[in-house]
Design a protein that fits this description.
Number of helices: 6
Low-confidence stretches: none
Number of strands: 0
Distance between the termini: 29 Å
Mean pLDDT: 82
Helix content: over 70%
């Protein structure tokens, strides 16, 4: 989802506000599943994604491409970085 969002924001550089529906969908999806993830994983690891999504939404609604592309790139990096933290493996279960 973050890769698709990254592409969409890049393609709408002149009018990034057009991507607000997609950003809201990703933010809603994350909010819906974050509560369940907090039961299994450290909230601190999840809060970086939540904070980045909030800043991304704000930048998109303000039609600020420069900050929006930074935030979506950070979101992609956080998602990839946290994959091993939030993945189901033997070490995380112990």
């Amino acid at each position: 989802m973050t890769v698709q969002l990254q592409v969409e924001i890049s393609e709408n550089e002149d009018n990034v506000i057009d991507t607000s529906t997609s950003v809201d969908e990703v933010k809603s999806f994350w909010s819906k599943h974050e509560e369940n993830l907090c039961l299994m994983f450290n909230h601190k690891d999840l809060s970086t994604i939540t904070d980045t999504l909030s800043r991304l939404s704000s930048s998109v609604n303000n039609n600020d491409y420069d900050n929006a592309i930074i935030e979506v790139n950070l979101l992609k990096e956080y998602s990839e970085k946290n994959r091993h933290i939030m993945g189901f493996n033997l070490q995380n279960l112990l």
